[in-house]
Amino acid sequence: MRFRLTHVLAFMIGVVGGAALELHAAGTLQEIYPFPSGNFDPNTLTLTADGALYGTTSGGGGYNLGTVFRFTPGVGLVTLINFSGTNGSKPQAALVQGNDGAFYGTTLAGGSYDFGTIFRITTDGQLTSLASFTATNGSYPQARLLLASDSLFYGTTFNGGISNQGTIFRVSTNGAFETLVTFVGTNGASPAGGLTAGPDGALYGTTSAGGSTDEGIVFRITTNGVFTNLVSFAGVKGSVPYSGLTLANDGYFYGTTYSGGANSLGNVFRVTTNGGLTNLVSFAGSNGSFPQADLMLGSDGALYSTTYNGGANDNGTVFRVTTDGVITTLGTFYETNGALPYTSVVATSDGFIYGTSSDGGSLAGGNIFRISLFTTCTMLPLTKTGPNWNVNLSGTPGSNFRVVRATSLAGPWTTLTNVTFGVDGLAQCRDTNAPSATAFFRAVNP
């Protein structure tokens, strides 16, 4: 378990003292902005350097065709643009910030031919349609764009192309468009996830169908259009990936499948750049089921995301999984705090992860939620038993920590003991050899 802060308690020997530090409790999934009922369907959020969160909704807005919004924690939500159809409609993907500071994205439909658009929008809401899909060059894009090292954007469409099974494309910031690959089934079909840059400079992705089993594939494509089908999904190794891939610190890619795995409820998988596919974790219902979202790489090297169903109320979960397959449920949706999340999460510097749910919440239209990554640890007043001093703490049941002592904040620190919070959330450390002068106590990682 990790702690958000090091907690320090100082006292003069012979004087009872203490300090209570209020922290955010890990696993508390909070609604922080409710969307009204009416099929708003908020998509994955994008975090900017100033701490604001930008996103899109597939519905709602002035024409009920979706919006682009900015949400600032502690301030609120501002709608930047209402999609009207001619400028796009029903976006389903996250926004990507370009080198110019503007955001780039796609809409599922609308535009000149009603097959979707690629757009640019500034932080003050100035929207420019860069390209409209025509069906022959792709249609109905669902995935985020990738800004590659060549300063061009790369993406996928779910349908369109010569066999109506999707495409891979690239587009410049001024709208110059090129189709790189058309899917025909044998080489994959219906990509729902975006592309990810690999350590070799190539781009990697998934399709939700096609391949040798028609359960989807993992592929590699170079920026000059050389395509390689790396591996087909099948059964226990996962089936029907709606997510893209996430490159972890170990050089491997990780993703989720909507079905398949040991329980046919989806999985987390690992895949190498040459197509070595491993089922890392199979969802079992109680820990989530039917994930649709990309994984987010955390600063701790673990991966974070959501499941659409499963958990205690079958309304979905937020989970953490390590690269060696240890999965932890961080939060569960109960309808009142949101339901049915199909989007990924983002992490902020204050120790929270933020995401969206498509349903539930206090207004029944989905919400923006957050959950803390850190456990509660509160120092309580000291007590004295004979010659011994007792350091009292309260915190998340089951979490553990190490209590250390020093006579100066500069150290050195001496370990007193390791303590685990009981079911009542209380713990105590007895100091039987306290110094005769001021002493400082703190709780740190075990």
CATH architecture label of the domain at 7-23 and 380-444: Sandwich
Beta-strand portion reads 35-45%
Span of the ends, CA to CA: 8 Å
Average pLDDT confidence is: 89
What is the CATH level 1 assignment of the domain at 7-23 and 380-444? Mainly Beta
Largest sheet: 4 strands, antiparallel
The tally of strands reads: 36
C-alpha-based Rg, rounded: 25 Å
Give structural notes.
This protein has about 450 residues and is mainly β. The N terminus is likely disordered. The chain has a domain of about 80 residues: Immunoglobulin-like (Sandwich). The strands form nine sheets. It has a four-stranded antiparallel sheet with strand order 1-36-33-34, with no helix packed on it. A hairpin with a 5-residue loop joins β9 and β10. Helices cover about 0% and strands about 40% of the residues.
Brief write-up:
This protein has 446 residues and is mostly beta strands. It is built from no helices and 36 strands. The radius of gyration is 25 Å and the shape is elongated.
